[in-house]
Design a protein that fits this description.
This protein is mainly alpha-helical. It has a domain of 230 residues: MetI-like (MetI-like fold, Orthogonal Bundle), CATH 1.10.3720.10. It is built from 26 helices and six strands. The strands form three sheets. Strands 1-2 form a two-stranded antiparallel sheet. It is globular, with a radius of gyration of 25 Å. The protein starts with a helix and ends in a 10-residue tail after the last helix.
Length: 565
């Protein structure tokens, strides 16, 4: 009875934490949108729908999300199918290269892409040198939507790929063989057998990509697209305490995210048991390809990977050159900006802030994420399903919603005793909490996977020998799943280092800037600001690349579970 009581105490504490820092900010946003001094009202939401500028922003955000999702599907689907179903040399190395776009947020990549597609950038210069045009073309000014869609799709397609490759690989091959024996054609097998069984993973990845691109703040902001919903929310931050219109905008984002989360949970839950049926006893034999087919595969993968890393290359070139104007390639290469990126007072403060915030967020996620997974897998207590759903909710709730909610519900009424939670006084505590909330699903899934793969007999043996529950967890459970916890912690730390939306909204003073806010501030600096911002982005890119490689080594094919709602 005492052990059961302790379990429910831990459950209550975690639910209270999630209620305060996840549910309450969203509820506060709803309250400010629909309730004013006179009671319930639809005025602010109605004004959002009736304003032509607001509707233009909504439709532009929607079109960006749709096109990003379509492009991501077009890129990720054939790649996932080939990796899951075909055998060819170098597949493991190619699979690692596919994840490269994830190491640089599109917000940072946009800095370098502006140097390629701007009026005096590399593309215009190349076309003029080839005689294809007589004067420079401002590609971003003429087609900003194209730049946003391309950059976001190149960043997000690996998330869809991870979901698809796991879905295609986990289908029981005997089901396809049975359909073939009954006379079904390959296309009919794909349409009637493979596609329905892979649908949960396909929809889970697709919905994540759609939500992330619909709520992406940094890329449109850098490209100067002000009439998209996330940027208009960002512009209304200064009026968060006086103008409820911003809350109505956030509610719309939240409704889209909630709908996507609900659809994903329904679809994933309905197909999960079927998709894994029989995989324990039947091993799929990957088909070999001819020399011509392998050549086509290498060309396809090489082209996609090359295009995907163009933003990374452009950021690296901008960070290592002192002049890139009306030339195809930069001139006067130098390492000065890398030194200035870690040597100036502003950047050093930003680096220290991001390191401390990410470390605090990772520690919070380690304790809370492991406890959630342990209660759900080992104890299976009443309320475990709700706890797991709340823990995975941040994958579907964008950071801009959480950050805006924090400004509202913690920004006005806290007294001096709780001023450390007031983002207008000092945002560091809420930045650490927001980072932790946003990356909690990674730790929960990592710990969940480790506990499911570890037999409880060792823990039962330790308990039978008289060890207390805490001693069993610390001396038996944690060492057995240490690799999973380490991988989850690495992902939490690395992605927190380059968190965009929370940093841009919550950090308003220079002394509290994390890396991403410092990069945004440096972009508008007159003296080599873009170069230093790019160099700072390269340092962050190197950190995230090392973290992803380490986590991929520890988790292997289970890495895709980190990005599934």
């Amino acid at each position: 009875m005492r052990r059961t009581g302790n379990n429910y105490i831990m459950l209550s504490m975690i639910l209270a934490f999630l209620a305060i820092f996840l549910v309450w900010p969203m509820a506060y946003v709803f309250k400010r949108s629909f309730i004013d001094a006179k009671g319930f009202t639809l005025f602010y939401f109605g004004s959002l729908i009736s304003d032509p500028l607001q509707m233009e922003a909504i439709w532009t955000s929607f079109f960006i999300a749709v096109f990003v999702t379509i492009v991501s599907i077009m890129i990720a689907s054939p790649m996932a199918w080939l990796v899951a179903r075909r055998s060819f040399p170098g597949k493991t190395l190619i699979s690692a290269f596919i994840l490269l776009p994830m190491i640089l947020p599109p917000f940072v990549g946009a800095v370098g892409m502006k140097m390629i597609f701007s009026r005096c950038g590399a593309l215009s210069t190349l076309l003029m040198n080839l005689g294809a045009t007589d004067e420079p073309i401002d590609w971003l000014g003429a087609y900003p939507l194209f730049g946003v869609v391309l950059l976001e799709a190149l960043h997000l397609y690996p998330i869809l790929y991870l979901n698809l490759v796991a879905s295609f690989a986990n289908i029981d091959p005997s089901l396809e063989e049975s359909a073939a024996n009954l006379g079904a054609t390959p296309w009919r097998i794909f349409r009637r057998v493979i596609l329905p069984l892979a649908a949960p993973g396909i929809f889970a990845g697709t919905i994540i990509v759609f939500i992330w691109s619909f709520t992406e703040l940094g890329t449109p902001l850098v490209f100067g697209m002000r009439r998209v919903l996330p940027v208009m929310i960002y512009d209304s931050v200064s009026e968060v305490g006086t103008n409820p219109a911003g809350y109505a905008q956030v509610v719309l984002l939240l409704v889209v995210a909630a709908a996507g989360f609900w659809i994903s949970k329904r679809l994933t839950g309905s197909g999960k048991n079927i998709a894994t049926l029989g995989r324990i006893t039947v091993v799929r034999e990957e088909k070999k390809m001819s020399a011509g087919q392998m050549l086509a595969v290498y060309v396809f993968f090489g082209l996609v990977i090359f295009v995907s890393v163009i933003p990374h290359i452009s950021v690296l070139m901008l960070a290592s050159s002192s002049r890139w104007f009306l030339t195809v390639l930069p001139e006067n290469f130098t390492a000065e900006f890398f030194k200035r990126a870690v040597g100036s007072e502003v950047t050093q403060t930003a680096l220290l802030n991001s390191l401390s915030l990410s470390l605090c967020a990772s520690i919070i996620d380690l304790f809370i994420g492991f406890t959630i997974a342990w209660l759900c897998v080992r104890r299976r207590i009443i309320g475990a399903g709700l706890l797991d759903t709340l823990a995975m909710l941040p994958l579907a709730v964008p950071g801009i919603i959480i950050a805006f909610g924090y400004l509202g519900c913690f920004g006005g009424f806290l007294n001096d005793r709780f001023s450390f939670l007031n983002p207008r006084v000092n945002p560091m505590a809420l930045l650490a909490v927001s980072y932790a909330i946003r990356r909690l699903p990674y730790m929960v899934r990592a710990a969940h996977s480790g506990l499911e793969q570890t037999s409880p007999v060792y823990e039962e043996a330790a308990a039978n020998l008289g060890a207390s529950p805490l001693r069993v967890v610390l001396r038996v459970t944690c060492p057995l799943i240490a690799a999973n916890l380490l991988a989850g912690g690495i992902l939490c730390f690395a992605f927190s280092m380059l968190e965009v939306s929370d940093s841009l909204i919550l950090a308003q003073a220079d002394q509290y800037f994390p890396i991403t806010k410092a990069i945004y501030a440096l972009m508008d600096s007159l003296e080599n600001g873009a170069n230093i911002a790019s160099a700072l982005g390269v340092w962050g890119m190197a950190l995230l690349a090392a973290a992803l490689l380490w986590a991929s080594f520890l988790l292997g094919k289970r890495l895709g579970q980190m990005f599934r709602i």
